[in-house]
Write a structure and sequence with these properties.
0% strand
Length: 195
């Protein structure tokens, strides 16, 4: 079971690519007159309409890129240091940087989300859930945070709640195969327990 969760975490980390700090080629150019929120709204509309898994993944990567941009060079630098510490599994170092990030800009959802990820990897599920809730207050469509919530519920044996959280992921990101598969697997497990 622990191996399954490790796989899910690695998948979640892969969904938050290190390349998010480096904007990728985009099919539609960023309109400079658009605000970050307008760009995200447009991307989420595209994500809902996309019927190709590969196309949806490209749009999701662009959303991650938008989320990663803080608008502050100091915060971007600390996020980079935190990512490096996470890659090296130096959880306490990563937390130190992320604590500073959320203190400097409490409205920056990705700072909270990254800190939630570190707490999750340290098995501090209560702290992770608190940071996930803050992330979702700031960005209710944050499919990464919703996936993390689902994984915590799943780890705690709350399968029905995990299904609900995964369903929220699919509502925002319909082509997320991992969330779809988890819904199917957990539904089968619940149905099997009822027999």
């Amino acid at each position: 079971m622990r191996a399954v969760f490790a796989f899910l975490i690695l998948g979640a980390l892969a969904a938050t690519p290190a390349a998010a700090a480096e904007p990728r080629q985009q099919s539609t150019p960023i309109k400079p007159e658009q605000t970050r929120q307008q760009r995200l709204d447009d991307l989420f509309r595209e994500l809902k309409r996309e019927h190709s898994e590969a196309g949806a993944k490209r749009i999701a990567d662009r959303i991650w890129t938008e989320w990663y941009r803080s608008g502050s060079s100091s915060i971007d630098l600390m996020m980079g240091w935190a990512r490096k510490a996470m890659d090296e599994q130096k959880w306490d170092v990563a937390l130190d940087f992320l604590d500073q990030v959320v203190t400097l800009d409490p409205q920056y959802s990705e700072g909270w989300n990254r800190r939630a990820t570190v707490h999750f990897l340290m098995h501090n599920f209560k702290k992770s859930m608190a940071d996930i809730e803050r992330t979702l207050e700031l960005e209710p469509r944050h499919f990464g945070a919703l996936s993390g919530m689902a994984q915590i519920m799943q780890a705690n044996g709350a399968k029905a709640l995990a299904i609900s959280a995964y369903q929220r992921v699919v509502d925002v990101y319909p082509m997320d195969r991992s969330a779809q598969n988890q819904i199917a697997t957990l539904s089968e497990e619940i149905a099997g327990q009822a027999i």
